[in-house]
Amino acid sequence: MGLEKLAAKVIEYNARLESGKASKIKPDDVKKVLKKLRKKSATIQSEIDGATSPEKKSQLQNRLGIAQAHIARAEWLLKEIR
Question: pTM score, two decimals?
Fold first, then answer.
């Protein structure tokens, strides 16, 4: 999911929030998720460093890319809700 799609979801969320159908996202909750994502990213990176087979390295690099994308989205969301 790109940032444009995420921005659209935030707009939908704001509409649901105003109508009372959603609860407010707390910055501390996003920070907690960011901490977990960064830890997971570091774990994957250490697995990449220890991987011996090219297939395993490739698979781990894909997982790392996904984790980094989630981190970028979470950082963006944190800026938006402050």
Answer: 0.78
CA 27 to chain centre: 14
Annotated domain spans of the chain: 25-81
Give the N- to C-terminal CA distance of the chain in Å, as an integer. 22
CA angle 36, 12, 20 (to 5 degrees): 95
Q: Evaluate if residue 1 carries a pLDDT over 60.
A: no
HSE-CB of 30 using CA atoms within 13 angstroms = 17
Residues 65-78 have pLDDT tens digits of: 999 999 998 998 89
With tokens 């920070």, the residue in question is 31
Both tokens assigned to 12? 């939908």
Between CA 7 and CA 17 the distance in angstroms is 15
